[in-house]
Amino acid sequence: MKISDLLSPADIMLDVRAKDKSRLLRELSTRAAAEVGLDADQVSEEIAKREELGSTGVGNGVALPHARLRGLKAPFGLLARLRQAIDFAAIDDQPVDIVFLLLLPESADGAQLNALACVARVLRDPEALRRLRGASDNEALYRAIAEPSVV
Questions:
Q1: Measured at the alpha carbon of residue 142, what is the angle toward residues 139 and 144, in degrees to the nearest 5?
Q2: Residue ranges in the chain whose pLDDT is less than 70
Q3: What pLDDT, on a 0 to 100 scale, did the predictor assign at position 150?
Q4: Which residues have a catalytic role annotated?
Q5: Structural domains in the chain?
């Protein structure tokens, strides 16, 4: 699975303003719900439930909030780069400025479950993070995450 299988250029948000983690997750959930045709409250609730199990702030300024949802047919991603980093209770206690919200079908198969690993792998790459943080517009932000790094 590739990032481009679950993220489209239209699902990029640049310079998002967020006062706190819960408001950010609500905003991203609402946007994602509209894109996939699900109820915004349902999406927001499932994302919040997962977050209660432990922060999805994975370190290096990155968060990967995710949830499985009834009624979703295929994995869906939404990438947001925040204007200003916020506290996310990340594992390294660092504020987060890159958020990849991932929605998975409730009965996700093995290939779909690979979506989370795929996103995590890309966002662990220091070069990919540098490109994401340096992107000047939505198109550059999309290319930074969806295209393999040039070695």
A1: 110
A2: 108-109, 111-113, 148-151
A3: 46
A4: 66
A5: 3-146 (3.40.930.10)
